[in-house]
Every structure is written in structure tokens, then in C-alpha cells.
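User: Batch of two.

Assistant: Item 1 of 2:
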Amino acid sequence: MNITQIHKFLFLIWLSATPLLSFASAEEPVDYYAPENVRKFADFLYEQGDYLRAADEYQRYLFYKPKDTEQIHYKIAVSYRFGGKTEQAIQGFETLLRTYPESQFASRAYYQIGATYFLMDQFDQSTRFLHEALPRITDTRQYAEAEQLIGLSYLKQKRWSEASEVFKTLQASDVMSIREKAVLYHDYAEQGKHLSTRSPFLAGTLSTVVPGAGRLYTGRLGDALASLFTVGFTGWQAYDGFRRDGISSAKGWTLGTLCGIFYVGNIYGSVISARVYNRHVTEEFLATLTVELPY
């Protein structure tokens, strides 16, 4: 028995759950291809979390009932989103909006597209899309949820000040759940502003003055000592070569060139070290962010 047969068997049990349906099923066999049963089976699969098969069944239902499209198109797109087919989900929502711009599902569809981009880690795209869509979102709750998602996208992009402003505004929202979360997210954004990060410019400057000092500033003691030793040793050997053989010293020029390369590399490495340090700190901080998207 394959998975489809198992689903149909479970669906038959579900149809027979009430005495009335049991009696009807005893009178005549279930027509799996009847449009109403196709839709019931699709709804059953959706409720069971088998979203991609549910999308296929909703598509089959549309074949029989092509006029019953708005809600079905929305459920197909949502099924693709929950099933991990993000590109198909976005295409589905966009098709719904193009075909039925005044649909009762339009506000949800705009939000869902932004949420899908968010789940794909395309936070900048999510922010830009929702900013453009806000004037067309007519439902008060979904408008507030879209603003909240914009703020969350700012947080994910480490744009702390912009996120803070969004959540400060949402603290006056008419939607209680949004208002409560806005307080928490606003505090989170404020903490993000004051994370203990390192300045790449200062790290480079320190290593310009004393080789390895910039690495020490970012907490990399081993790298700091290695830079100090490498630059110091090659510089000392170059000096020794010039002192003994004069300006034509092969040893002096060779080790002097290496010293210069190591010195510049020490400065550049310190700048990169500060950036890596900052990325590590912010990623650890963002890992504590809990996001629960509606719908």
C-alpha cells in the first residue's frame, strides 16, 4: 500500500466519522473524484501537514470547479509556503493578486509574500516589498503584522536604529498581541545598538603603531604575538643586512620586502579580525531572537 492509498484510507475513515456519513457510505461507494470530496481530501491533507499533496489536490479541485478560485488559489500558495516550495508560493500569491486585486485574501497575500522572503533569509527584499505593499493592505491586523515583520527584517539585517523606531511606533498599535511583542522587540533593538563590538578602523590603527596590537584588541592573543614576532624578526634581519653590507645588501632588501608585506598584512588582518569579531557577536545575539510568524 503506497502513501496515496494510505491517505485515501484515512480520508475514508474521516468521512465515516459521523453516523450520518457512515449510513450514506453504506448505501453507495465514495466517489473520490467528486469535486466536493476532492476538496475535502485536500483539506484533510492540509490539516495533516501534508502540504505539497494538499496543493496537488487543490489543483485537481480547480480542474472541476474553475470558478471557485480565490480561496483555493490562496490555499495552494500557502501549501507551497508551508511545504518549503518558496518560489512557487510567491508565484501563487502574485498570481492571486494580479487576478483578484480586490480579493478578500489580498491583504493576507501581501503579508505572505513578505513572510516568504523573510523565511528565505532575503530580509532586504522582504522589507522593500512590504514597504511598497503597506498602502494596499486594508486589514488593520495584517497591516500591523506587516509592520512588525518589517521591524524583524531590520533586526535580522542588524539595522538596530530602524528596527527600534518601528517597534516604538507599534507600541501604540490597536492590536494587543502586536503591542505586547513590540515592547520586547524594541528592547531587543536597543540592546543591539549597544553590543560590545570592535572598531575595524581602531584595530587597523593599533596594528599600524604596534604590529599585532589590533589582533590583541579583538581578543586574538596568539595571532597578535605571531604578527609581532614575524614583523619584528624580519625587520631586525633586514636592518642587520643593511648594517653589514650597506644599501646593496641582498639580505636587507629581501627581508625588508618580506617585512613590509608582513606589516601591511598585519594591518589588513587586524581590520578583518575586528569585522569577524563583530559578526560573531551579532550572530550570537540574533540567535537569541525568537520569531513566530502568524498564518
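Item 2 of 2:
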Amino acid sequence: MDNLDLAERAGLPDALRVLLEEYPRDGWETDPGFDGLIRFWLDRHLMFRRLMSELRSGTEALLDRKLDAARYAAMTARYGGMFVNGLHEHHTIEDTYYFPKLVTKDARIERGFTILDKDHHDIDAFLASFVERANEVISISDNREKLQTTAGKFRDELSKLEQLLDRHLIDEEELIVPVILKFGAADLG
């Protein structure tokens, strides 16, 4: 059996990708059911990816000494807060509202929602570490040499989190978007 832990998997098993075969990613935007909820939901995922990218590029600029430490601390606080708060809110809504409704649509993919829910808990553990590292770089922004070393560790933390988040978002999109395209979003709000 494949290891389906977020940190280990390369994607969802084929058995959970049955609707993706029927509704492949490259046809989503031309599907008549694409607008509304799907577009909003994918835009949220894009926002999380962009925030991670901004944090990564800002950290790289700091490490290359192309960004002032005070601006870096402000950017990390702003984007980090937006990222963590937004992701917690997003996952809470999915776990309490959308997943319970979507899981009933097609029994073949029920296990996928269990995996995605577990992902949310796994990501929470990485978010806690992310917050610790972010707070650390913010708190020492007045000591450039110490900040350089600590920002290097933060960059490593960002890289790990970014990879896990991307894996989760891709799997979530490839499970959920086909469900909504097939069954509609009328009962999803």
C-alpha cells in the first residue's frame, strides 16, 4: 500500500483520481460549471501560493543583502500573518462545511477526503514551526548578522512548508474540482 502521508506521497492514488480522468485539469476553465465557487476556491489556493512565494523571495533578497532588515521583518509579519490566518480559516471552512457535503457525492473518492482532512492536521504542525521561525526572524531584525543565520533556517522552513502545501493543494484541487464540475455547487452555498 502506498504511503499517503502528506510528506511522503507524490499524489493521490489512481483510485481516487477517477473523476479527474472524466474532468481533466486542462478542461476545467472551459467547463460551464467552472465559475463561481470553483473560481473563488482556486483563487484562494493561488493566494496561498503567492504569499509563500513572496515570503521565499523576500527571504532570499535578505540573505543576498538586497533587502533592509526592517522591511524584511515588516514583510514577514504581514505576509506570514495573512498566510497563517487565511490558511487556518480556509481549512476550517473546508473541514466543517465543504468536505462533509462533498464526501457524499461519490463513494469512490470518500477516502480522499479523509486524506485531505489528515493533511490539514499535518500542515498545522508545520505551521506552528513556521510561526516560531517567523517570529524569531522578526524579533532579531535589529541584529543583521544573527538575522542572516536565522533567516537561512527560516528559508529552509519555508521550502519544506511550500512543498507540502503545494502537494496538498494539487491533490485537493484534483479531487474536489471534478466533484463540483460533475455534481454542481447548488447545495454548497
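The mean pLDDT is 93.
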